[in-house]
């Protein structure tokens, strides 16, 4: 996964007799005809082109069970997730997010149309998140239809509050946007197009067909994520992979130094730092899997 610490999504459901649903207005902007082009890596691609969770209208939908089976079949290694979905069941979205987040290998998410509601949560699990220039994220608070007496409905509102907090936490971890600003976006049901998604941090880059140039900073972040994903694919725990990369980056910074050098103590420190960098580089080379 990425070099940032991503929160785990919660499990469980509200106590009242309610289920999370897609807001009707979302269907007006979702074009199910947008499909992924075929490619040579189709056997390592998961397509999410339907509602999230079991759709009792059609008997279809993308479930955590299906995604889990696909990941088990693929095994460790890179996975591409292609998304064009209006969202759906938030708890299925949380489960799929957690499955992808814990996958041993680099996860590349490509939003080719719409990643709305719980589909946008799933997208946040990517090591690299790409979006079409004409693609969209939609973020909002959990939406539901409920029945019950006034006490049950008041209780349901209280139960939904921590669900919204968990969603916001995931967005904050990806974007770095202040929590209050994320909450305002969710309160307003915000639609974010491709370029804005990259600017705000919901995505790392546009799809290759829509890219112009990538800054050195974004290229560096992408490289770090790929290294971490490769380390985790060997079975290394996330915390250990992040620590190793952090140590490696620190040693690079230390060896670069700053200002004029003398030939005594500082020179010896620089030499030691360079030796440490070389050792860490060798370690990475030895444990990274070959293609």
UniProtKB/TrEMBL annotation:
The keyword Ribosomal protein does not apply. One of its GO terms (molecular function) is serine-type endopeptidase activity. One of its GO terms (biological process) is protein quality control for misfolded or incompletely synthesized proteins. SUPFAM superfamilies: ClpP/crotonase (SSF52096). The keyword Protease applies. Keywords: Cytoplasm, Hydrolase, Protease, Serine protease. One of its GO terms (cellular component) is endopeptidase Clp complex. Pfam families: CLP_protease (PF00574). Belongs to the peptidase S14 family. PANTHER family: ATP-DEPENDENT CLP PROTEASE PROTEOLYTIC SUBUNIT. This is ATP-dependent Clp protease proteolytic subunit. It comes from Paracandidimonas soli.
């Amino acid at each position: 996964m990425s070099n940032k610490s991503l929160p785990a999504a919660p499990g469980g459901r509200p106590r009242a007799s309610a289920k999370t649903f897609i807001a009707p207005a979302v269907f007006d902007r979702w074009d199910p005809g947008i499909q992924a082009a075929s490619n040579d890596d189709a056997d390592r691609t998961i397509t999410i082109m339907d509602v999230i969770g079991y759709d009792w209208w059609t008997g279809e939908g993308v479930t955590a069970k299906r995604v889990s089976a696909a990941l088990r079949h693929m095994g460790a290694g890179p996975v591409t997730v292609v998304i064009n979905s209006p969202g759906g069941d938030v708890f299925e979205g949380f489960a799929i997010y957690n499955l992808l987040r814990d996958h041993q290998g680099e996860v590349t998410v490509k939003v080719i149309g719409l990643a709305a509601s719980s589909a946008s949560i799933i997208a946040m699990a990517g090591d690299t998140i790409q979006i079409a220039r004409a693609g969209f994220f939609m973020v909002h608070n959990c939406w539901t239809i409920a029945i019950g007496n006034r006490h049950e409905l008041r209780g349901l509102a209280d139960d939904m509050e921590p669900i919204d907090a968990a969603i916001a936490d995931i967005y904050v971890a990806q974007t770095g946007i202040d929590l209050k600003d994320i909450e305002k976006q969710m309160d307003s049901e915000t639609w974010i197009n491709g370029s804005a998604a990259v600017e705000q941090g919901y995505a790392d880059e546009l799809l290759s067909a829509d890219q112009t140039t990538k800054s050195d900073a974004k290229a560096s972040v992408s490289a770090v994520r790929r290294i971490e994903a490769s380390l985790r694919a060997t079975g290394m725990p996330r915390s250990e992979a992040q620590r190793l990369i952090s140590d490696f980056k620190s040693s690079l910074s230390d060896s670069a130094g700053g200002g004029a050098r003398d030939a005594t103590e500082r020179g010896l420190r620089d030499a030691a730092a360079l030796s440490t960098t070389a050792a860490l580089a060798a370690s990475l080379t030895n444990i990274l899997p070959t293609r």
